Amino acid sequence: MKERTLIHVLLRQVFSLLLAFSLLLPAQVSLAENALSEEAYAEVNAALAESHVLPRYRNFAEAAAKFAEVTEDFCKASGQSDDGALQAGFDEVMDAWMGVQHLRFGPAELFLRAYRIAFWPQAQGRFVELVGDLLSQNDPARLTEESFGTAGVAVQGLPAAEVLIYSEAALDGQRQGEVGRCNLLRAIGRNLSVIASDIRRDWEEGAEPFLATLKQPGPDNPYFATHQDATLVFFKSLHDQLQLIADAKLKPVVGVSAETAEPKLVETPLAKRALRNILLNLEALQALYHGEDGSGLSQLVAASGSDADLDPLMRKAFDQTLANARSIDQPLAEAVADPANRPKVEKLLTQVLALKQIVKTRVAQALEVSVGFNALDGD
Amino acid sequence: MPSMEIDRRTLLALLAGGAAWPLWPARLRAAAQQGHKRLYLSARAAEDGSFRISGFSETGAPAFDLALPGRGHSLAVRPSGGEAVFFARRPGAFAKVVDLRGGKLLREIAAPEDRHFYGHGVFSAGGRMLYAPENDFAAGRGVLGVYDATAGYARVGELPSHGAGPHDVKLLSDGTTLAVANGGIQTRPDLPRVKLNVPTMAPSLAYIDRRDGSLLQEVKLAPELHQLSIRHLALGAEDRVAVAMQYEGPKGDTVPLVFTHRGREQAQILDDMPSVTKAMDHYCGSTVFDVEGRVLAVSSPRGGLVAFWDVSAGKFLSKIEFPDVCGIAPAGKPGSFIASSGRGGALEVDARRGSSRRIVSDFLESARWDNHMAAVEI
Known about the structure:
heterodimer; A: 379 residues; mainly alpha; 16 helices; 64% helix; B: 378 residues; mainly beta; 5-stranded antiparallel beta sheet; 4-stranded antiparallel beta sheet; 29 strands; 45% strand
């Protein structure tokens, strides 16, 4: 079967890369219990929340507010303005989203917010269809701030905005004129801005800001019993996003050969920014690991003292992976079929899988977070 | 894709004359009294990273150990004939038929190209038909593949599961009613770990007539609990079905994770011990009844615990702690179980006392035990 062949090829590649990283040599891992204190976890959690999560969600809220303004201006200038301003606004808010896409716990998971921002991976045709339906209904009552927030998640966010902004390519023949298009875009812009500012607010304001929940674990805390528990969500952010990049953003697109590559399965296919998304994701994960100001998960890896080679290995793995990603000089959909760039894309997938493997085994062990054989996988 | 019309006719023809007879628990008890050997079955990963399926005794002595081409998940024990079918883990496409007495591989079953297994299955009471939850991923709908064990496990039809993501399945004592856990989550084989429809998922416990695939009854929780994936089932005395769930919603939410259901009664939610429900961290891994079908065990690998309830009283009994515990099977005595860990090792547990003892066995310690375990008398 095609699927199995692909997995075998990938496993072989990961294996050879792990060899290259000297991963298969026996690691010097001590089995000392609880090398890390609760204070050590607490310090890193607070630093990550304040220097990684908050600035990045503030940035996303600003970009979303700006995108809402751009869509508003587009409506005011109906028929007059070109799509360049919309595309620039979309790029900015997408950039900001890619910088927080891995941080899906806490306020981002309430009220389906992360799903409403970008319901992905989904077949691109689904967004085109849903946007086409809404345009042809042309019903202003469905686009008010209140009713649009409860519309189907797929039409509320960035993938639907992309279809509308790049509508000439996407909505071939279905384009219902600038008024319907601007009304729907404006509804999406407003909605994104509300969701983004609600996430930011719930992190740092109100009677029970999530920042306090994260920093003050305990028996009555519904989220975290210990500081170690809170570190686990940062660990999962790192692991799960590497998994998403490999499994959803790269593997289906790359296929087993240039002939079986599926360029249409890239993220944001119309905006042609799939590779940029991956780069921004990886930079955000690198920042989560190293810390924006030096206090990241790596501080715990170093403090655990159990696996001296691990921190240099992680640094090297991130640096090499990012350098390779930056060297691909075409959009991902084209690069997978390009003789010069395809090997780099294949290598990128292998590198991300290898990074995930290191994180799942050695980083998990160093952080003493419980990632069981049965506990991480949803079966 | 096979047509439903033909499937139903074929099935009805195949089933004609195959009278249903109650399988459980009388037969297991009778077998135990006749001095048969009790064998525990589970998939595992070996120390070298290879995936295997194993049988072992209550002392942890291996009876057989066979290689798998990929990670296994759960299994179906054939009621007559000392045979079991071990399924690949989702989205695997293979199942292995094993002779439990000889410890030998009998054959491999391959899922059709446009289907994959979910990792569970159940036999008809006479042991002829095997029902395996499968994903019709092109259509995004759940089905039960029907395989005829007497015809080399040929796939002779399929039934609708009446929901997305069917996972576990049990057969009630009438011999015709299948209880199916429709997890509600849509996945694709090319994105096996990505859940595609969490915002709109609609899980259900569906009772299905195995003769024609018709939906006899559907149990759904309140609309606000639609993100509780109905994943694993256990069958107790008097056809009480226990349901162990996994929550896909926000981490801070307080939601029940276990309920039981019987006949036309209301679902009975088991959340009388909030500290245990919380400790399970939104994730139940496996569930099973004791040999009498009265004490229910639910494992949570994330919580590193197994919780026990007396279901006739609807009352929490006890819990034991065991890191990355998931596999659990009834031991020979009422109220006792064997539990295994993904980190290696297994415990013998007395649920009434809430006590446990580690089974001394190099074999058990050397393996990373997979999600599910079953007990069989051979």
